[in-house]
């Protein structure tokens, strides 16, 4: 079994060069565990959740219209959002799912944690499997600068969209792939 390295670097200096509403950027000088001294830009980012929200007949909630600045366009992805101060990933998942989609999670369970890109950021994303009843809905509450359109799609359609490159969200690809590799066969047996 692979063991995750437990060594850490020694941060020799750290200077904040940008602070925004979601993340800040630090310029750091670090002595790495193998003795090198390196300069790195580091994005300190809050933790997030991504939800694989599923009905009893394996329909998935999919965000199929949300503007994303990184691609300057709309993206297709699973519902996701930031974890607020004081929230656990499960509390955040339930809140974000309701706010973005109007669906109420009746059962939640975390199934993996991933890093957005450990080469420059500490953003941790917890993937949560949520069970929903499509008849149980609540009002959506968007942030002042967001609009999200969602739909229920069969799991096979979501898998096809991932395979065909229509879905490019790394957290969506990772959550769906992890679910298929390690959970789906157990849930259907």
TrEMBL record:
Specify the superkingdom: Bacteria
Assigned keywords, A-Z: Hydrolase
Under the GO molecular function aspect, what terms does this record hold? hydrolase activity
Family matches, as Gene3D superfamilies: Nucleoside Triphosphate Pyrophosphohydrolase
Q: Name one Pfam family in it.
A: NUDIX
Q: The Nudix hydrolase domain covers which part of the protein?
A: 44-175
Instruction: Give the matching PROSITE patterns.
Output: NUDIX, NUDIX_BOX
**GO terms classed as biological process:** nucleoside phosphate metabolic process; ribose phosphate metabolic process
Q: Which cofactor(s) does the record list?
A: Mg(2+)
The name on file for this protein is: Adp-ribose pyrophosphatase
Which organism was this protein described from? Lacticaseibacillus thailandensis DSM 22698 = JCM 13996
